[in-house]
């Protein structure tokens, strides 16, 4: 189980950070706890340019990917620190990443009342309409006398407080599991198991069962994402080892939430060009996760040409390029190549055949003819909206020079 734990202060030294570090070690058999420093975030303001919100976007992706979130808060002037209030504003302004997300509040302070007042305030914020989180009720972790209850090596040595922390965190894990079971039964069953398993879809070219459709999308070498006509992330193929890691938590989100902030103008430009009928395809070769990949975007239209959305195909092309570079197309046709039964061996099968894309004969002695149609991978390509990559992708989304035509051939 993956837990995201937010250090509720930007102070260089904080017992709340020490508490989370202790929890990370102490509960490592129960959960994978990732500690996040809110000091990375810019101060909240509606006027902060989108290009300066990259760290905010990264935090949102972490919250979406987590099974639960722990907020650790100190207490300043009977309330939460300004930095923590700013962080919760980023997680609730024009976003729903905390909606129905299981959350827990803990806190440490020097006084005997611990961080009781700030925790009350934090709980009120988390259940507010803009956050709408699933707050773990009760289970108060109030650790006072911080300098006395932690050892020099960061262990919580007060036995009663440690027992209470263990009880509360165990309850939090069980609380998360309750909502996971509900989601699995009522929401996500269609991801792995179509709701009507024996149903068939009739196409003009044949009939497929829902199970076959699911497995086709999981088997084809390219992964597929769909942004619908309202610019929301509508669907992705459930394929293992995806280049772009997707989550059902992102479904129905605006496409602007699925891309790094600096890439948003780029993806918006591409989608608008599809919607306006200016383009139908954008292609981009680039390096991802250490190998050469190809991303292609297609405008999805109905038979009357009305825009239905944007499809993104992404996949590694190393296998194809290796075949090309190792002379895979130089061999004579045989039974395994799909050669026509009318071809009869020898010189006839080896006769030069014109390349439909270059017009060049395979027997052409000019080296340029062998490379003229060769794909070109852009090693320096940065991740931007045209890659559709999640933050864990291959390249840096911070390149401001990327635009809708960077590295792309436009058909």
TrEMBL record:
Residues 330-411 are annotated as: Disordered. Keywords: Oxidoreductase. One of its GO terms (molecular function) is FMN binding. One of its GO terms (cellular component) is cytosol. The keyword Oxidoreductase applies. Residues 1-145 form the NADPH-dependent FMN reductase-like domain. Its EC number is 1.7.-.-. The keyword Transit peptide does not apply. Pfam families: FMN_red, PAS_10. InterPro entries: Flavoprotein-like_sf, FMN_Rdtase-like_dom, NAD(P)H-dep_reductase. Gene3D superfamilies: 3.40.50.360, PAS domain (3.30.450.20). This is Flavin reductase. It comes from Limosilactobacillus antri DSM 16041.
């Amino acid at each position: 189980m993956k837990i995201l734990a937010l250090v509720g202060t930007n102070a260089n030294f904080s017992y709340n950070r020490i508490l989370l570090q202790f929890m990370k070690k102490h509960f490592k058999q129960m959960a994978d706890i990732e500690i996040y420093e809110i000091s990375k975030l810019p101060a909240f303001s509606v006027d902060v340019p989108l290009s300066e919100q990259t760290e905010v976007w990264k935090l949102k992706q972490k919250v979406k990917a987590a099974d639960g979130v722990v907020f650790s808060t100190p207490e300043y002037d009977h309330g939460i620190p300004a930095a923590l209030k700013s962080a919760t504003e980023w997680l609730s302004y024009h976003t729903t990443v905390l909606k129905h997300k299981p959350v827990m509040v803990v806190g440490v302070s020097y006084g005997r009342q611990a961080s009781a007042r700030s925790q009350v305030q934090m709980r009120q914020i988390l259940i507010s309409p803009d956050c709408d989180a699933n707050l773990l009720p009760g289970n108060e972790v109030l650790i006072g006398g911080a300098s006395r209850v932690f050892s020099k090596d960061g262990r919580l040595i007060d036995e009663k407080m440690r027992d209470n922390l263990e009880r509360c965190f165990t309850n939090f894990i069980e609380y998360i599991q309750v909502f996971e079971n509900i989601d699995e039964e009522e929401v996500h069953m269609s991801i792995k198991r179509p709701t009507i398993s024996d149903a068939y879809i009739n196409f003009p070219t044949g009939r497929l069962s829902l199970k076959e459709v699911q497995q086709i999308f999981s088997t084809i070498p390219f992964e597929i994402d769909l942004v619908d006509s309202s610019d929301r992330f509508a669907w992705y193929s459930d394929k293992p080892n995806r280049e772009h890691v997707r989550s059902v938590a992102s479904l129905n989100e605006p496409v602007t939430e699925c891309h790094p902030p600096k890439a948003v103008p780029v993806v918006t430009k591409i989608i608008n060009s599809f919607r306006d009928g200016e383009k139908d395809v954008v292609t981009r070769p680039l390096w991802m996760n250490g190998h050469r990949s190809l991303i292609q975007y297609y405008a999805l239209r109905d038979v009357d040409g009305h825009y239905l959305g944007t499809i993104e195909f992404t996949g590694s092309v190393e296998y194809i390029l290796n075949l090309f570079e190792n002379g895979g197309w130089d061999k004579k046709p045989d039974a395994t190549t799909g050669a026509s039964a009318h071809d009869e061996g020898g010189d006839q099968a080896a006769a030069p055949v014109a390349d439909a894309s270059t017009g060049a004969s395979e027997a052409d002695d000019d080296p340029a003819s062998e490379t003229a149609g060769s794909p070109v991978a852009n090693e320096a390509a940065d991740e931007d909206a045209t890659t559709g990559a999640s933050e864990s992708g291959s390249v840096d989304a911070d390149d401001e020079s990327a635009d809708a035509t960077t590295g792309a051939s436009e058909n």
